[in-house]
Amino acid sequence: MSEVNIRIAVPDDFEDILDGFRTYFWPYEPLSSGQKIKTATPSEEEFVMSTLQKGMSLIATDPDRGDKVVGFLTIEILTPGLLAEWDELSKDKPKEERTEAMGGIFNKLNEKADVFEMYKVDKVLWLVYLGVDQAMRGKNIGTRLVERSISMAESLGCKGIEIDCTSAFSARIAQRTGMKCIGEIAFKDYVDANGEQIFNPPAIHTHMRRFVKIHE
């Protein structure tokens, strides 16, 4: 059995990544699996594609399966200005219930753990979506993708790396790669106006956690 290869994703890979996003990421993502709608929305797929076009995202390919894409890590450079820009762009778009709920929990976590305020950095390498084919899990592919991204950060002008982990498994990867948890929100505490829990993922997934690594 050959070892998977890790490399930067190129445009020819984008449809394969989008297929992975639909088949082995989104149905198991805790913010999706605990909701009625378990498929990616057009705006979520649009966001994935816009991130890929930045040219920083990584893939894992399996030489034993014809270099099939078996894992991906989509990456953005995050700045305070970019967050404001996204808010402006999204205000006139049709509202999607799950997307609104996801934005809400992200904003609550940002209030608790704003990496820009805490570390006085002006941009961070944001690890957005991490997915691994079910058939390839348990082979450290997710860890290798994150390790590779950490090694890229300084060359891209980022002293910080950030990942928001909704899954217990991605949180373990963040810890394994030397990242530090700076804030968390328990899913049981994120409720709607009627006091009902909004996200109800499998019991192993209990929190959304923000991890960072700062290069001195």
From TrEMBL:
EC assignment: 2.3.1.87
Domain of life according to the entry: Eukaryota
Domain N-acetyltransferase: 4-213
Pathway named in the protein's UniProt entry: Aromatic compound metabolism; melatonin biosynthesis; melatonin from serotonin: step 1/2
Acyltransferase keyword on record: yes
UniProt keyword annotations, A-Z: Acyltransferase, Transferase
Pfam families xref list: Acetyltransf_1 (PF00583)
Recorded GO MF terms: aralkylamine N-acetyltransferase activity
Catalytic activity, reaction form: dopamine + (9Z)-octadecenoyl-CoA = N-(9Z-octadecanoyl)-dopamine + CoA + H(+); dopamine + acetyl-CoA = N-acetyldopamine + CoA + H(+); serotonin + (5Z,8Z,11Z,14Z)-eicosatetraenoyl-CoA = N-[(5Z,8Z,11Z,14Z)-eicosatetraenoyl]-serotonin + CoA + H(+); serotonin + (9Z)-octadecenoyl-CoA = N-(9Z-octadecenoyl)-serotonin + CoA + H(+)
Alphabetized InterPro entries for the sequence: Acyl_CoA_acyltransferase, GNAT_dom
PANTHER family, per database record: AT07410P-RELATED, N-ACETYLTRANSFERASE-RELATED
Family: Belongs to the acetyltransferase family. AANAT subfamily.
Protein name: aralkylamine N-acetyltransferase
Species in which this protein is naturally found: Hermetia illucens
